[in-house]
Amino acid sequence: MKKIKIAFFDIDGTILRFGKPDITAKTKEALNKLQENGIKICIATGRPLVTIPQFEGVDFDMKIAFNGSVCLLDNEFIVNKTIPADEVLKIIDNAAKMGRPLAVATRSRIVTNGCDDALREYFELASLDSTPSEEFEDALKEDVYQFMMGCVESEWDAVLEGTSSAQIAAWWDSAVDIIPKDSGKGNAIKKVLEHLNLSSEEVIAFGDGGNDVDMLETVGIGVAMGNAGDKVKAVANEVCGSVDEDGVYHYLKAKGLI
User: Fold this and answer.
1) In whole angstroms, what is the distance from residue 80 CA to residue 188 CA?
2) How far is residue 65's CA from residue 10's CA, in Å, rounded to a whole number?
3) In the chain, what are the domains?
4) What value does the CA radius of gyration of the chain take, rounded to a whole number of Å?
5) How far is it, in rounded angstroms, from Cα 248 to Cα 30?
6) For residue 62, is pLDDT > 90?
7) Is it the case that residue 1 has pLDDT exceeding 80?
8) Which of 70, 171, 201, 233 is deepest in the core (most CB within 10 A)?
9) Are the C-beta atoms of residues 26 and 246 closer than 8 Å to each other?
């Protein structure tokens, strides 16, 4: 096996316990020791850039946000994909016909045009505020990287009806992220590896949600959290302990990576 040179981490449910504001001391130790051992540490999240938390004492080398629509390395955008303006309007119209409120995410903000139980709970999982905002229409004048809305899988076709440049990314069964087509964490990682001239065998990634599946399939070692669903575990090379058990720390320790 080639030496691991870069590690990607989902946030919620992977390095951060749901509803908690900060990662544990053991997780911080693990991340910092990886860097000390010459391994780059990178966030790979479905969160918008502005909602990625800053963890005191940890400085990530790279951030993948919006489920792979953006990848930021040293203030340089390695990936920067948005939903076309005409399809932004179509998705909003589709959601309205379904009676579903939406959250829109741009590079600078995330705002909602309403809230239902699914969207509220979705936001609460990441400790975000889902209060409807008068800024929603104004935000649509900016580049749109992602929508979030409550819905189940049987509604996905209705969400995307009439679009060709958007796709669904879902890490929870009652809500989705709507992102540019051909985005996804896995595709963003492929761009990163090309940029850094690395092979997939030199990469490890940790995740717990449905939107982590393509990431775990892309890297040499894909590790599913113990709290991940069966579909995620099925595509992973290995399964570690849950986020509540500091699974990332104990896995890296056992493998001699820290």
Assistant:
1) 10
2) 10
3) 6-80+183-254 (3.40.50.1000), 85-180 (3.30.1240.10)
4) 18
5) 8
6) yes
7) no
8) 171
9) yes
Asked if 73 contacts 61 with a C-beta cutoff of 8 angstroms, the reply is: yes
Percent of the chain with pLDDT over 90: 90
Burial label, 2 (beta-carbon count in 10 A; 0-12, 13-18, 19+): exposed
202 in Cβ contact with 196 (< 8 Å): no
CB distance 145 to 107 below 8 Å = yes
Distance CA 150, CA 115 (A): 9
Cβ within 8 Å of residue 134, ≥6 positions away? none
SS (H, E, C) the chain: CCCCCEEEECCECCCECCCCCCCCHHHHHHHHHHHHCCCEEEEECCCCHHHCCCCCCCCCCEEEEHHHCEEEECCEEEEECCCCHHHHHHHHHHHHHHCCCCEEECCCCEEECCCCHHHHHHHHHCCCCCCECCCHHHHCCCCCCEEEEECCHHHHHHHHCCCCCEEEEEEECCEEEEEECCCCHHHHHHHHHHHHCCCHHHEEEEECCHHHHHHHHHCCEEEECCCCCHHHHHHCCEECCCHHHCHHHHHHHHCCCC
12-32 in b/e burial notation, b at 16+ Cβ within 10 A?
bbbbbbeeeeebbeebbbbbe
- Token pair 């809230």 is at which residue? 115
**What CA–CA distance (Å, rounded) separates 36 from 159?**
45
Q: Which residues contact 7 (CB under 8 A, 6 or more apart)?
A: 34, 39, 40, 41, 42, 203, 204, 205, 206, 257
